[in-house]
Amino acid sequence: MKQIDQLWILPTEAGYKIGLTAEAQEDLGKITFATFPKVGQTLAKGDSLIELEAEKAVSEFSSPLSGKVVAINEAADQEPSALDEENAWIAVLADVEPTEFENL
């Protein structure tokens, strides 16, 4: 697992799972609204991964990798406060060049 820009990235069989670090959760406070990417969407590194509104801040997090969104955290899409939980994940990206992850 690697961390960059208040996100963690974990290689899995399905792809690269991306989530919020504890630091990001602390900085944001209780999350009240989230705009997720769409499953099937292709993201380039630096594209908007998720927009969050919370009690302490409104933040946009950029994708740390280029790839195709193959899953999103459906529970958090329905109830954004699920992103307040420890190890909360945002999305899984597939079709990522392994060297891109290695170079983070």
UniProtKB/TrEMBL annotation:
The entry's keywords: Lipoyl
Domain of life: Bacteria
Record keyword rRNA processing present: no
BP term (GO), one: glycine decarboxylation via glycine cleavage system
Keyword Ion transport attributed: no
Lipoyl-binding domain span: 15-94
Family as reported in the entry's similarity comment: Belongs to the GcvH family.
Protein name per the record: Glycine cleavage system protein H
Organism expressing this protein natively: Enterococcus faecalis (Streptococcus faecalis)
